[in-house]
Amino acid sequence: MNMMEVSHLTRDYGRGRGVFDLSFSIQSGEVFGFLGPNGAGKTTTIRHLMGFVRPRRGSCRIGGLDCWRNAAAIQQHLGYIPGEIALFDEMTGREYLRFVQRYRGLRGEGRLRELIDRFELDPRGKIKRMSKGMKQKVGLVAAFLHDPAIYILDEPTSGLDPLMQNRFVELIREEKARGKTILMSSHMFEEVDRTCDRVGIIRAGRLVALDDIDALRDRHLRRYTVTLADPGTAADFARDFGGRQDPDHPARVTVHARQSLEEIFLDYYGGGEA
């Protein structure tokens, strides 16, 4: 079942900025990585899914509901992290999270305590005095607090140290095991690799790749030809590294290596503009 659907979405801001005839879907229970540099159209797509922006053409649907017409109903069951966290500066972290609890109609402290402990958040200080990483922790706790079925996460680990990034990855894996549906935009290729079932790569507002991570790797093999000292050494090398010995040049071996997700991403960009 498709939980999220983007169909022929178009929003043209001029000068090549925006998204153009963008289509993809995310299955229920799937973790989907959305990759692209700044300005490629990731946040524009996410804003349409959140119902913040009305499509010029095309549509976005979550749970079968139109994201623009039914934004309020959709957001009741959705956890969201924006690309730039904006909180109420005059509140303390605890006051803000209490506000979120009241807004969501939540009772009990178990989920709140568990998330605060997981991210080692000290919620007592004023938000305006918090570091970027601490504000990000507040945003993460708020997004996961009501235990929603769907998450839309735009650069969720921005400002977090490696330990907290790993805690986030563990949380995503737990939510995935519970059948949650997650769209995650990130520049952190390792966390996408560790959590996502599929990825979409967007360039200049258009989808240039959409596939399982393993399938992408299989399509982006790098071939290396190595010439060894003698055929016997070449045969050993071919056996050890899964290569193929050239029958016409028995000292020569061809091997194929799978690329990292970051290397595949760079293949699509090749130093060009977003």
UniProtKB/TrEMBL annotation:
<dbReference type="InterPro" id="IPR003439">
    <property type="entry name" value="ABC_transporter-like_ATP-bd"/>
</dbReference>
<keyword id="KW-0067">ATP-binding</keyword>
<feature type="domain" description="ABC transporter">
    <location>
        <begin position="4"/>
        <end position="229"/>
    </location>
</feature>
<keyword id="KW-0813">Transport</keyword>
<dbReference type="InterPro" id="IPR051782">
    <property type="entry name" value="ABC_Transporter_VariousFunc"/>
</dbReference>
<keyword id="KW-0547">Nucleotide-binding</keyword>
<dbReference type="InterPro" id="IPR003593">
    <property type="entry name" value="AAA+_ATPase"/>
</dbReference>
<dbReference type="GO" id="GO:0005524">
    <property type="term" value="F:ATP binding"/>
</dbReference>
<dbReference type="InterPro" id="IPR027417">
    <property type="entry name" value="P-loop_NTPase"/>
</dbReference>
<protein>
    <submittedName>
        <fullName>ABC transporter ATP-binding protein</fullName>
    </submittedName>
</protein>
<dbReference type="InterPro" id="IPR017871">
    <property type="entry name" value="ABC_transporter-like_CS"/>
</dbReference>
<dbReference type="GO" id="GO:0016887">
    <property type="term" value="F:ATP hydrolysis activity"/>
</dbReference>
<dbReference type="Pfam" id="PF00005">
    <property type="entry name" value="ABC_tran"/>
</dbReference>
